[in-house]
Design goal:
By secondary structure, the chain is α/β, with parallel strands linked by helices. The chain has 13 helices and 17 strands. The structure holds D-malate.
Length: 409
């Protein structure tokens, strides 16, 4: 008899964005003529930068000639991309990260989900609430939780985020000791950013408690306000207590192409039961070389082009475009009387709808043909909010603003 992994049965509903897709499809099927505008899942809409497209074409041509053909690549990523990452994303900003600490992958979602394999089944995990569901669900699948009741799994520690704490919890909010905390800033879903002092408090806590921070920086390219940290490694002593995830999805429009990376610093350790420290970087190397055959050569050449002078300018212009979308939506909703967090330094707006978030989602879908994301899908503390994503064409964003204004006026 094949025993199933019963942990999967604890997961209450389908993945949030799958449930939304079902509701949107049902609405579209019932209203075939409706022009639905999607401001739900954070999926980019603008084409890739011309410099990236050119690099992808060149890489395809490399595969057409025996001399330049590439088969299996290094599982950790090609040196050309690891070096470009270390130099451009870290060293040029005065941050100490070396190329051999950078592990290229097919995206931050996979890495965030896979990293927890490195830890004992009994480690105590803390997440923010609201939270990107992947951090929670992957730990449920791994058996680190009990069942869910009222939107929360027993065994997980939740750090409630609200306007009262600026949607950034502090270590003092921990109700009990934990071993691992997931932090994401700029935050998905709230769009909130964390100051260097706030992140330093987490780093100091982690070093003091022999704990680990899993820092998701997938949205760092949206930061425009000077002084907001782009990386956890801007904090003193973060190398001894943090792993960082980055993604080209939102930075460079790679949601369909798939590329991201994880930084595991040399010297970063977790501990055996007897207290012996064990380096995590060789563990992650072993995990990736065993279970992952690397991100494609063509994709990595495309990602490398993001760091060329043209690629950097073009991708920045696209992010500026999305940020202007966010500003327009934020202004319109603020004028309608809604409290909105995010939307500056982030592509996400977190809107206090002062009511049931799935009902508000359904109202906007049915009456405005606009897709958002109900806050309850991100956790109990997300109830009462919706998330609006700024990823769309200007035409659609302006059209959505007009529709929202008439439905919500
Ligand atoms: C989101 O909408 O939260 C993101 O697109 C999900 C993801 O990046 O996986």
């Amino acid at each position: 008899m094949v025993r199933v992994n019963e942990n999967y049965l604890k997961i209450q509903a389908s993945y949030l964005f799958t449930e939304i897709a079902h509701r949107v499809k049902a609405h579209q099927d019932a209203n075939p003529g409706a022009k639905i505008i999607r401001l739900g899942i954070g999926d980019v809409t603008e084409p890739l930068a011309p410099a990236v497209i050119a690099a992808l074409h060149r890489a395809v041509d490399d595969e057409a000639a025996r001399e330049t053909f590439r088969g299996y690549g290094p599982e950790q990523g090609y040196a050309f991309l690891r070096e470009a990452v270390a130099k451009n994303d870290f060293q040029d900003r005065g941050i100490d990260v070396a190329a051999d600490e950078v592990f290229i992958s097919d995206g931050a979602k996979c890495d965030c989900g896979n990293i927890q394999e490195l830890f004992d089944a009994d480690v105590k995990i803390a997440v923010t609430d609201p939270v990107y569901p992947v951090y929670v669900d992957t730990n449920v699948m791994a058996g680190r939780t009990g069942t869910s009741s009222d939107g929360r799994y027993s065994g997980l520690v939740y750090l409630s985020c609200s306007a009262a704490n600026g949607f950034v919890p502090s270590p003092a909010d921990l109700p009990e000791p934990v071993d691992v905390v997931y932090l994401c800033y700029p935050n998905n879903p709230t769009g909130a950013t964390a100051t260097k002092e706030q992140l330093q408090a987490w780093v100091d806590w982690a070093n003091a408690k022999k704990a680990l921070i899993l820092f998701d920086a997938a949205y760092e390219a949206f930061i425009r306000t000077p002084g907001i940290p782009h990386s956890i490694y801007e904090c003193a002593n973060a190398r001894s207590c943090a792993i960082e995830f980055r993604s080209y999805s939102k930075t460079a429009g790679f949601t369909g192409i798939r590329c991201g990376y994880t930084v595991v610093p040399k010297g970063l350790v977790a501990w055996k039961a007897d207290g012996t420290p064990v380096e995590l970087r060789p563990f992650w190397t072993r995990r990736q070389t065993t279970k992952f055959n690397g991100c494609s050569y063509i994709t990595q050449r495309g990602a490398e082009a993001v760091y060329s002078p043209e690629g950097a300018a073009q991708t920045k212009a696209t992010i500026d475009f999305y940020l202007e979308n966010a500003r327009l939506v934020k202004d319109a909703l603020s004028k309608l009387g809604y409290d909105v967090t995010g939307g500056t330094d982030s592509p996400y707006l977190w809107v206090n709808v002062k009511g049931d978030s799935w009902e508000f989602f359904d109202k906007l879908l049915k009456e405005a043909n606009v897709v958002t994301t109900p806050g309850a899908g991100f956790g109990r503390a997300g109830e009462g909010f919706i998330r609006i994503s700024a990823f769309n064409s200007r035409e659609n964003v302006l059209e959505a603003i007009g529709r929202l204004s008439s439905v919500l006026a």
